[in-house]
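Consider the tokenized backbone below.
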């Protein structure tokens, strides 16, 4: 069987364009996406809420107010938890399934929210942050894989992008919650504790959701897998999708049954895929996105707007821009492609970071502080406007679709771990670096990293728009083995034909 005639391939869809699905054409898939995407909302809420809560935590705990390191630890301890959660999440996903991994994440996140809300001192608060981070870490790598494995290839990017919209929507909601509780006794406790609500809602809803059909098929529960797929595809296309799964299963059967983390680096094509996926996740963070989201109120105050309420209000506008950009990304990612979207996004990010750097340099040396403060806010808004449609969804979408079936859970967990480790490094060092070399120089460093990211994407990241999982595998095999792979595949096709 050649690639062009592979069941479920984009060639098949070209032959039968009436069977292409649109984003809204299947309410079952859309509902599954939204419920799974609540994981993204938890991710985004936790990212955004701490930026406002930190302003009031400093008021309650003098030790926090006096120590930049303690402030960074409160923010970044959730990232330590996320690293643990993402690193273990790959194994949990492969062993117990996407559904059970999501349920476990909800339980851990809820426990952490309660601990944070009741924390009597900064150290118990840090423990709560660790727990919610573990929940977010598991959820952050589970949701994109779960959505991708249930999505038709022609709308997979947009549906996975919905999870990113939920992340940015969660950040926006967190700023609304921060504003709502600014005058309420126990301000930051409400801000942090209310995050348990969406986790509980998702837990209840997920009890009624199916397991990923691809995971069920991989675990030889084929009847259940086909029952789920029958709710997604019409009969004609269902037969082709099932044939594709049987073909993929046969290929995986010839490989090792158990995949370990080290096996990722033994296979040349999987190693190349992980380089692209992990690299995208690292550059997403090292270009400064979560510095902006965690510390946007602090950055606004650095720019000269000293009122807590005003800082939160301006940050709310920044978060709103982030959410709006994610909606644009859902449309663009399946129409213009992952690679083009990432490159155009990074181009705008570079310019925005240069504006931010210039604003803070100007504030340091100029006399018109109000002008440079306004310029910094404009730079923040532009940064988010360029980042959110491209470098927001592209790393998560690409990582949900570039790995072979057998490696998808492990590699998804490893790439998410890269994201969280990078996130931890940036968030734990931002305030200290800004104090040491200046905020302007810090943003200039981010701009330099963004230039490197542009080069990386141009060289190492392939275009996967509209491709099936099987077609994406062929890309890595060709990159790994070049013309020798093409020759071997032709011999194999000839022998099969004979």
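A designed sequence for it:
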């Amino acid at each position: 069987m050649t690639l062009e005639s592979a069941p479920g391939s984009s060639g098949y869809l070209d032959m039968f364009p009436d069977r292409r699905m649109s984003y809204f054409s299947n309410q079952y898939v859309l509902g599954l996406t939204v419920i799974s995407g609540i994981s993204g909302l938890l991710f985004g809420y936790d990212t955004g809420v701490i930026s406002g809560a930190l302003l009031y935590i400093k008021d309650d705990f003098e030790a926090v107010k006096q120590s930049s390191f303690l402030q960074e630890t409160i923010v970044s301890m959730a990232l330590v938890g996320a690293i643990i959660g993402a690193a273990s999440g790959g194994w949990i996903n492969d062993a117990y399934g996407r559904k059970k991994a999501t349920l476990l994440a909800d339980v851990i996140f809820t426990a952490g929210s309660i601990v944070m809300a009741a924390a009597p001192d900064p150290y118990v608060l840090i423990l709560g942050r660790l727990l919610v981070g573990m929940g977010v870490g598991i959820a952050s790598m589970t949701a994109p894989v779960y959505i991708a494995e249930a999505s038709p290839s022609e709308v997979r990017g947009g549906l996975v992008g919905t999870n990113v919209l939920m992340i940015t929507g969660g950040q926006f909601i967190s700023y609304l919650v921060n504003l709502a509780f600014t005058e309420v006794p126990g301000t930051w406790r409400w801000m942090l504790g209310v995050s348990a609500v969406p986790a509980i809602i998702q837990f209840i809803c997920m009890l009624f959701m199916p397991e990923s059909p691809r995971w069920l098929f991989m675990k030889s529960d084929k009847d259940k897998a086909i029952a789920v797929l029958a709710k997604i595809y019409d009969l004609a296309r269902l037969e082709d999708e099932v044939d594709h799964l049987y073909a993929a299963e046969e290929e995986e059967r010839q490989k090792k049954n158990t995949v370990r983390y080290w096996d990722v680096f033994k296979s040349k094509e999987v190693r190349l895929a992980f380089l692209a996926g992990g690299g995208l996740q690292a550059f997403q963070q090292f270009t400064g996105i979560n510095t902006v989201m965690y510390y946007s109120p602090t950055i606004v105050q650095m720019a000269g707007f000293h009122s807590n309420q005003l800082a939160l209000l301006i940050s709310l506008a920044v978060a709103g821009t982030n959410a709006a950009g994610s909606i644009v990304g859902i449309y663009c990612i399946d129409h213009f492609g992952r690679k083009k979207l990432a490159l155009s996004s990074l181009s705008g990010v570079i310019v925005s970071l240069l504006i931010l750097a210039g604003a803070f340099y100007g504030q340091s040396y100029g006399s018109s502080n109000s002008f440079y403060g306004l310029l910094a806010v404009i730079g923040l808004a532009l940064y988010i406007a360029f980042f959110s449609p491209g470098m927001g969804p592209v790393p998560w979408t690409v990582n949900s679709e570039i790995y072979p079936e057998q490696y998808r859970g492990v590699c998804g967990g490893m790439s998410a771990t890269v994201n969280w480790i990078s996130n931890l490094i940036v968030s734990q060092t931002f305030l200290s670096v800004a104090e040491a070399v200046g905020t302007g120089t810090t943003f200039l460093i981010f701009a330099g990293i963004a230039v490197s990211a542009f080069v990386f994407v141009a060289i190492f990241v392939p275009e996967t728009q509209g491709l099936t999982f099987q077609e994406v595998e062929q890309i890595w095999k060709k990159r790994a083995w070049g013309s020798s792979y093409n020759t071997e595949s032709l011999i194999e096709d000839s022998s099969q034909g004979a």
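Residues 229 and 235 are 10 Å apart (CA to CA).
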